């Protein structure tokens, strides 16, 4: 792999935002916090092949609150019938939510700091539209700002309105490095 190719990949990345390289939400393997970690669920997890699994509240895939690390499951017996919530709640993995328009390089800087290498990607709704052109909600702005900061998963602020943000994907360091290495050299 040539250095030139990587350099070109890096230049391509400057133009890209998180939504261009993320894994689409429909393809994200997630678990409900209510799911029981029985043999069947354990098999599903291991068949997925992923090491980090977003955990959502109830049956609302838009409300991801936590991450389950496959390594957290090492000490759990198959017949304990413990819930995802118990394990994920106990280990309290940090969850980062970023805006879909965040530049990829900005997120790469965060990943480089090393606290986490995975983030959920959200689309913030235009509140203005839903309120007939009147700009109302600075509570909403506040919520989005808080959500975009690193928060303990369990302390994710409640949205003032349901579905104030919509999750659109998941991104890891792997998605970014992949993009770097796959750059095509094209003549424009
Ligand atoms: P892992 O460590 O689980 O293999 P990587 O960080 O190596 O994950 O990412 C590999 C690819 O899998 C990336 O494209 C990433 O977006 C995607 N990915 C990671 N976790 C999940 C998940 N839970 N569901 C769907 N795709 C995922």
UniProtKB/TrEMBL annotation:
One of the record's GO molecular function terms: transmembrane transporter activity
GO biological process terms held by the UniProt record: determination of adult lifespan; magnesium ion homeostasis; monoatomic ion transport; positive regulation of gonad development
Keywords: Glycoprotein, Ion transport, Membrane, Signal, Transmembrane, Transmembrane helix, Transport
Gene Ontology cellular component annotations, sorted alphabetically: plasma membrane
Major localization listed first in the record, in broad terms: membrane
Stretches of the chain forming a coiled coil according to its record: none
Localization per Swiss-Prot or TrEMBL: Cell membrane; Membrane
Described function: Metal transporter.
UniProt family annotation: Belongs to the ACDP family.
Protein name: Metal transporter
Taxonomic source organism: Caenorhabditis nigoni
Complete-protein stretch covered: 323 to 510 of 759
């Amino acid at each position: 792999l040539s250095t030139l190719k990587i350099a070109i990949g890096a230049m391509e990345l400057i133009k890209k935002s998180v939504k261009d390289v993320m894994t689409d939400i429909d393809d994200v393997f997630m678990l409900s916090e209510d799911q029981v970690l029985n043999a069947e669920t354990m098999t599903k997890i291991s068949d997925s092949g992923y090491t980090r699994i977003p955990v959502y509240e109830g049956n609302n895939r838009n409300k991801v609150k936590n991450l389950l690390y496959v390594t957290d499951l090492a000490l759990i017996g198959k017949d304990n019938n413990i819930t995802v919530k118990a394990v994920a709640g106990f280990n309290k993995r940090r969850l980062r939510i970023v805006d879909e328009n965040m530049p990829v390089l900005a997120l790469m800087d965060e990943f480089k700091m090393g606290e986490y290498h995975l983030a959920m990607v959200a689309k913030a709704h235009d509140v203005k539209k839903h309120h007939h052109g009147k700009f109302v909600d600075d509570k909403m702005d506040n919520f989005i700002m808080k959500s975009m900061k690193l928060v303990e998963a369990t302390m994710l602020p409640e949205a003032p309105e349901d579905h104030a943000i919509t999750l659109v994907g998941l991104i890891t360091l792997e998605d970014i490095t992949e993009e770097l290495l796959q750059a095509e050299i094209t003549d424009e």
